[in-house]
Design a protein that fits this description.
heterodimer, A: mainly alpha, 3 strands, elongated, B: mainly alpha, two-stranded antiparallel sheet, 3 helices, Multisubunit sodium/proton antiporter, MrpG subunit (chain B), PhaG_MnhG_YufB (chain B), transmembrane helix (chain B)
Chain lengths: 169, 115
């Protein structure tokens, strides 16, 4: 029920910011009705869970995104240098990185982070590993990518997570 | 804010133009990389530069030019959703290529070998 409440607040905020109507009672009423309809349908479809509305990742995920932004900037420079170099000196590799996240939302965040960082793309998911294509040796840094995964697992929060992570190592 | 040496509008224009130029360079470099890199998987990495540095920096630059906070919020939504959808799209086509059996070129010699 708490999850539905937070989802409702989020939808209402998005409706207000996208429409820009703050003082037209009729339109605000329609907004409330549309938020309520969306909530009803989402509950009926059974998607308001840890995967469909992963609010458990907040607020820790915000710090993670800021850190990831810095990593993306660094990787962008490295890939841009290769795109413009006279001899790009590529050395593509396929590597497998362990996936220690507890939740599906956390795993999706990890795989997305790998793809979002230029120089590495997640190609395939195995039960507890991700197959990553790396542009060159310097991007095929398994320890570095596993460190990203550890930060995602940290953002997922404590609890059962710690046990899973230790078991996987 | 209206006149004087440190004109806020001027600072905003300078910052947003710098971001526009760097972001456009990111888009262009990504395009150059797509042409120059040797195979499908390596080209995805070049497209990643356009997706991240290019798109997000240009959106940041547009936020600095926005006439009011509502427009800033809408641009922030666009940036936020791009942040999630572009890697999903990249993964979808990479995974489709992998599943359909396209082998990447590997190693410094760029040989096409089975894994």
């Amino acid at each position: 029920m708490g999850r539905v409440f937070i989802l409702g607040l989020t939808l209402a905020a998005i409706w207000l910011l996208l429409s820009g109507y703050f003082d037209k009672p009729l339109l605000l009423g329609f907004g409330v009705a549309s938020v309520a309809t969306s909530l009803y349908l989402a509950r009926r479809a059974g998607v308001v869970d840890e995967e469909g509305a992963p609010f458990g990742l907040f607020p820790r995920i915000l710090g993670y995104w800021a850190w990831l932004g810095g990593e993306i900037a660094k990787a962008n420079l490295a890939v841009a240098r290769r795109a413009l170099a006279l001899e790009p000196k590529l050395s593509p590799r396929l590597i497998r990185v362990p996936m220690t996240q507890r939740t599906n939302a956390g795993r999706a965040t990890f795989a997305n982070s790998i793809t979002l960082t230029p120089g590495t793309v997640s190609v395939d998911l195995e039960p507890d590993r991700i197959l990553v294509h790396a542009l060159a040796d310097e991007f095929a840094d398994e320890a570095g990518i596993a460190a990203i995964g550890a930060r995602v697992a940290q953002a997922e929060g404590a609890g059962r997570r710690a046990v899973v992570a230790e078991g996987a190592q | 804010m209206t006149d004087g040496f440190l004109d806020l509008a001027l600072v905003r224009d300078l910052a947003s133009w710098a971001l526009f130029i760097v972001g456009s360079a990111g888009v262009a470099i990504g395009a150059v990389g797509i042409v120059r890199f040797p195979d499908f998987y390596t080209r995805l990495h070049a497209a990643g530069v356009t997706d991240t540095a290019g798109a997000e920096l240009i959106i940041l630059a547009m936020m600095l030019q926005a006439p009011n906070w509502l427009v800033v919020a809408k641009l922030a939504f666009i940036g936020f959703f791009l942040f999630f959808t572009s890697p999903v799209a990249t993964h979808a086509i990479a995974h489709a290529a992998w599943v359909s059996g396209l082998k990447p070129l590997l190693g410094p010699e760029l040989k096409r070998e089975s894994e």
